Task: structure prediction
Amino acid sequence: MDRVVVVDHLVKHFEVNEKRPGIIGSLSTLFFPKKRTVQALKEISFSVKKGELVGFIGPNGAGKTTTLKILSGILYPSSGFVQVGGYTPWERKEDFLKQISLIMGQKNQLWWDLPAIETFELNRAIYEIPERSYKRSLDELTTLLDVEDILTVPVRRLSLGQRMRMELIAALLHKPEIIFLDEPTIGLDLVGQKVVRDFIDDYNRKNEATILLTSHNMDDVLGLAKRVIVIDEGSIIFDGKLEELTAHFAKEKEIRVFLKNGADYKKLEEIGKVKKVKHPEVVLSVPRAEVATAAARILENFQVEDLTITEESLDDIIRKVFQGKLRKP
Amino acid sequence: MRKYLTIFKISFQQEFAYRLNFVLWRVRNVLQIFIAFFLWNTIFSDPGRVVFGYDRAKILTYIFGLIIIRAIVLSSRAIDIAGEVSRGDLTNQLLRPMGYIKYWFTRDLSSKALNLIFSVFEASILFLIFKPQFFFQTNFLLFFLFLTSLVIAVILFFFLMFIANMLPLWLPDQPWGMSFLLFIFTDFLGGGVFPLDILPSYITKIIYLTPFPYLLFMPLQIYLGKLDLITSFNSILIGTVWVIVLALGTKVVWSQGLKSYGAVGR
Result:
């Protein structure tokens, strides 16, 4: 087993200073600071194999970004075991840093006042990338992301989409084997999102890079991740294939009925939750265990033209994940 | 080593990206010199007068020496560290395979190089305008000691700045408090406003125990030949002790601070 990322019983809590509102509140905070401990991660464990692309999803504040920051060595954990590429991340050994990359959609490493090419040159020096492979990577990346003609424009004059592409280049010039992506498509327009998404997919396959990705963008998750880890309130509540997500979380199934004229919709409500009525079609939501009986009752009591039973869509499930509406089943 | 050379180059270019900002900062420096020059020029209007052991040539050399020494010692990019930490941009730096302390020291040096070029230029112009009597140190040993004390001053100031700028690792919403305090101490206790030896000796004795006089005052004193060899050596020794103490302090503060860094900002 070629496990590149190993996380075992990882715990992280933060001390947060609470601020009370108002002038008196501010003063009392100054003299009597009130600390509160926030449990960001509660003993999470998982591992990732080489070349895997894993989606890390969950509602805001669930602990996704915290996990990525610990894995990339920026944050110290409170306790637990973490190994990435054979290294302990927070020791921040140069050899470790040379094989990873953390890309955050909202943070830029590019020098604001200078053209992006200057940051690339800087990274070439810092990462000690040999001249030839630097040239090759740069050519390849700039062509792929279509930015050859804006390399010498000062970063502050670039659009967000252009900047994000430059960020990707700056973060990938050293050909990292392990990449942590935090909301890579945030704030981008649809075209920009697609460019970035296709690029990530391509990079993953071509370089056999291991990628962990967090996103609140449905298309990112559906388009990229084969495996997802769902995290909520600091705990992992699901870890498995994307397709298994539905079966795992959907407590209900949908019954779609086409009724013949003159049926009484009211009565359907006794059988299950009516989600949609669009004559003659009615969609009912029924607990998984009762699906068979519910269907039987409908067929018995109504004049039915057609009836199908479907799973809740993956879209809906993921949307619920983002909203934090799913708990441990 | 090569990576730090590249950092040096890019940092140098960055200073030029905000030309106006840089020019205004230089103008401020020149104005400060003007004020000090006219003040002391008035006091020493009688060419034979000696005040606090300074004659006209030496005090004017002190003032002009300050331009150059300020440019070398006090021009610093390390003041940007606090902002970087409190905005959470430190995160990006931590990901790079490089030494963070070395990175900022390199940027400091590049800022110093640029400021030095400009201040030599400014000092020459002011020199031509005022045509002051200038004291040239011809004793080779003293000049060498002066250069040594300058190197110590540069390192000392860097460590002081670095430590002061680490504050937001613990208090991210209060980035600059410590640095402001440091600037005031540096100017008043370091000899940036007046030569320290015009103060009563019991006060200077206390001040000499702090690291501040070794930033501006002592290098200038050595240059002016106001200290004998033994005292010059002593001053360099105390400066060196402070460098060691602050180097250790920087390491401790940095490694402890990282543990409490929240990597916030988003």
Summary: Chain A touches chain B through 34 residues (CB under 8 Å). Residues 268 and 274 of chain A are 7 Å apart (CA to CA).
